[in-house]
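Re: that chain you flagged

S.,

Sorry for the slow reply, it's been a week of failed gels. I finally had a moment to sit down with the sequence you sent. For the record, here it is as I used it:
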Amino acid sequence: MSSTDICRTDIENAKAGLLALNLSEQRLAALEAACLNELDTMANLEGIPLHEYTVLVPKNRALSYTYYGTYHGVPFYTSLSIKKEITYEKNDIGTGQKILQWSSAAVNLFMCFAGKEISLPWAVVSSNLPSNFTVRLTDWTDYYANAEAIPRSIYAKSGSAYPHVYSREYGNFRPYLVYHTNSMHSGPTATTAYRTLILMPQQARQL
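Prediction finished late last night. Pasting the structure tokens below so you have them in one place:
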């Protein structure tokens, strides 16, 4: 099964668990709709595993709406709906000549997620490598980010109803890099046949 198929299965399982809560029968149809919209949006993202999905059901089974603002005479309200943990994966950078330029400090590597750029100097990587390590054209990198997000659902008030119209995500964003080497190099090398380093910044970044 491909990673995309696994992700789709995760989404479908989350939907099944959501519908099993019977929120629409508990006067929480707006919350159910917001969660379904969120899952449908995630289903359109390629290869992003869903590790955890929690529906934030009010203890008193009644949504508490907070006034968000008015636009064109329509009042909008907001409420928390879910929290989730997902992983973004990128493997389209850091090969061959790019690796050599990076290791010579000629350039920095940039990890880009959701329009955000995170600069990673070679010094951060080299501090985790053996002192006699030699960079080769056959080295490569993958980079990832673990996101723990709580979407804030936004509703437009229409009479006594609050149809869901939009969601904004807030939470922690933790990028990390995986550096690969292999035994295809000629000459001496300080690495094993296959070596993987995971570098995790200490500071969590805000989405």
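What I noticed first: The helical segments are 3-20, 29-43, 97-103, 122-126.

Talk soon,
D.
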